[in-house]
Design goal:
The structure holds two protein chains of two kinds.
Chain A (H helix, E strand, L loop, with lengths): L32 H41 L6 H8 L3 H27 L1 H12 L5 E2 L8 H4 L20 H14 L9 H14 L7 E5 L8 H6 L4 E6 L2 H13 L5 E5 L13 E7 L9 H12 E11 L9 H7 L1 H5 L4 H5 L4 H7 L7 E7 L23 E8 L3
Parallel strand pairs in A: 1-4, 2-3, 2-5, 3-4, 5-6
Antiparallel strand pairs in A: 6-8, 7-8
Chain B lengths: L6 H5 L14 H32 L6 H6 L4 H18 L1 H12 L5 H9 L3
Helix pairs in contact in B: 2-4
The chains are: A alpha/beta, B mainly alpha.
């Protein structure tokens, strides 16, 4: 009997929902049946990688890789790089890695096909929504930082900034339409499960007394993480900053089409936020952004955020957890995968530092530091819950660490 | 007049940064990539067939537009998701068996066992 007629077959189904549950805002690319089917396949492929093949890597490590290394070297691993290099010789790691890289490249191809084939229509829709709008502040003279220009992040050809034609938004539209496949739907309908979680965290931890008038989001991309914050604090003026013009253009059009009117998108390098006055923000936010900067930029970011905060204001950086002595070297090596094999080079360096020390060097006091954890908040009746999901996707799991500080009054 | 971006050529563009290779021989990895693309397209065709069957079961006319507009119910979507999971399990059977082999540890080969069965002492 075919699955389609077997009512009992779906009981207990666990996995990505059908792609058609994605939220289609006003500038969302159109998708044919087969394009949707491709995203459905890729979401399931990523799930197969994280719930089956990745577990095999851990098993091979315990059974083969670690014993062979110890026997040969008469000692155990001294750091995560030794673990990773030893893993690269094992077929379980090789096949999981080859398939994971191939799946990411295939996902990019699928999303780029969808968006580039309708480039004219997408670009026109965004142009119509953003033309003459003062909430889009582009700086065509801005020099692209090396952090963005050196490599195409997560195998996204052209990265965040490339324009295939004047006014192009196919890059951000591809990011927006395809992230469902990469995360297996873990970020929710508008890929905003992280931002919703942060907004809820602020409400819960800081309470109703915290009424931000101005919020700055740095490294905003297409704004999917800042919109839930803007929606949760509708009386706040939200400034979202990024170096990439296509992201900002698409971001404003997307926000407006979703009825979120309190965000201004500004093109700037976050290493220099001198356009903004001292103590002019109540909240500075970055979400999954620090790992796309550099050791030269990070101290500037921390110093600038402190300068920009009003007394009593908060800065929050949402990232995957740092590598500490308490984290097994195998886990650290697996979390490093995206750094070395998915074009996120700074990921490995960013995750090994003592963020507290860097925050303190920027002037935040010990007693001002904030640490906590959040996981994606999604409609659990439709989307998988990151907190419950079986398997392990390491650096891609929709659960994050919050590192921040409150500037003393 | 500007040249219109060609979606076919640009969709599969290479990302900037030297590509890492993982398998013992790059040609094996090239073949694996080509095979994975076919695995994807078979899944896409199967989903399209499933959509056509479900449209017919609903008594609707099958057309390209109706196929593009099809919305599965929750239980239909779950059944299709489950089918894809079964399909992937079939495709990657050999890697499942690699995992099971690790769990079993050292196993005797048939050759070893044949010799064992031939012993009369």
């Amino acid at each position: 009997m075919a699955v389609s007629q077997d009512a009992g077959a779906t009981e207990g189904y666990s996995g990505p929902p059908d792609y058609r549950v994605v939220g289609r805002h006003g500038v969302y690319p159109e998708t044919t049946h087969d394009e949707i089917a491709r995203f459905n396949f890729l979401a399931q492929m990523n799930r197969h990688l994280s719930t089956h093949l990745m577990l095999g890597v851990g098993e091979a490590f315990a059974a083969r890789v670690e014993p062979a290394f110890t026997a040969k070297n008469k000692r155990s691993f001294k750091d995560r790089h030794e673990v990773r290099k030893a893993l690269t010789g094992d077929p379980a790691f090789q096949w999981w890695s080859a398939l994971r890289r191939a799946t990411m490249e295939t996902r990019q191809q699928a999303g780029r096909w969808v968006t580039i084939r309708q480039a004219d229509a997408l670009n026109a829709k965004v142009a119509k929504l953003t033309k003459g709008d003062k909430r889009l502040k582009l700086d065509p003279k801005l020099k692209l930082p090396r952090g963005v220009s050196a490599i195409d992040h997560h195998c996204m050809p052209g990265s965040y900034h490339t324009e295939l034609s004047p006014g192009d938004v196919t890059g951000p539209a591809n990011y927006d339409a395809g992230i469902f496949a990469t995360t297996g739907g873990m970020l929710g309908r508008f890929n905003d499960g992280g931002g919703v979680a942060v907004a809820e965290w602020v409400r819960r931890v800081l309470g109703a007394d915290f009424k931000p008038k101005r919020i700055l989001d740095i490294g905003c991309g297409l704004g999917h993480n800042v919109l839930p914050i803007a929606a949760a604090f509708p009386d706040a003026e939200v400034i979202a900053v990024d170096v990439a013009a296509p992201m900002l253009r698409y971001g404003l059009a997307r926000a407006k089409s979703m009825g979120i009117e309190n965000v201004t998108f500004v093109q700037a390098d976050v290493a220099d936020l001198s356009a903004f006055e001292d103590e002019s923000f109540d909240w500075v936010q970055s979400t999954m952004f620090l790992h796309e900067t550099s050791y030269k930029t990070m101290p500037k970011i921390f110093a600038e955020t402190r300068r920009l905060l009003r007394p009593g204001g908060i800065v929050l950086h949402v990232e995957q957890p740092q590598y500490t002595a308490a984290m097994p070297l195998f886990e650290q090596a697996m979390r490093d995968w995206d750094a070395f094999y998915n074009n996120e080079p700074f990921w490995t360096k960013m995750h090994e530092i003592d963020l507290d020390a860097w925050m303190k060097a920027a002037g935040f006091g010990d007693n001002q530091l904030i640490h906590d954890g959040v996981s994606a908040v999604v409609d659990k009746s439709v989307f998988p819950d990151a907190a419950d999901e079986k398997g392990e996707d390491y650096g891609r799991k929709a659960a994050w660490h919050v590192v921040g500080a409150k500037k003393v009054a | 007049m500007s040249v219109k971006p060609d979606p076919v050529a640009l969709a599969g563009a290479k990302a900037k940064g030297r590509r890492p290779w993982f398998l013992e021989h790059p040609d094996t990895e090239r073949l694996m990539n080509i095979t994975l693309a076919l695995v994807q397209e078979v899944s896409v065709m199967r989903e399209r067939m499933d959509t056509i069957e479900r449209l017919l079961a609903r008594g609707e006319t099958v057309s390209a537009a109706a196929i593009d507009a099809y919305e599965p119910t929750k239980s239909e979507a779950d059944a299709r998701g489950l089918w894809t999971q079964e399909y992937l399990a079939r495709i990657f059977r050999i890697l499942q068996q690699d995992r099971e082999a690790i769990a079993r540890g050292e196993e005797a080969s048939s050759e070893d066992i044949a010799e064992e069965f031939a012993r009369t002492d």
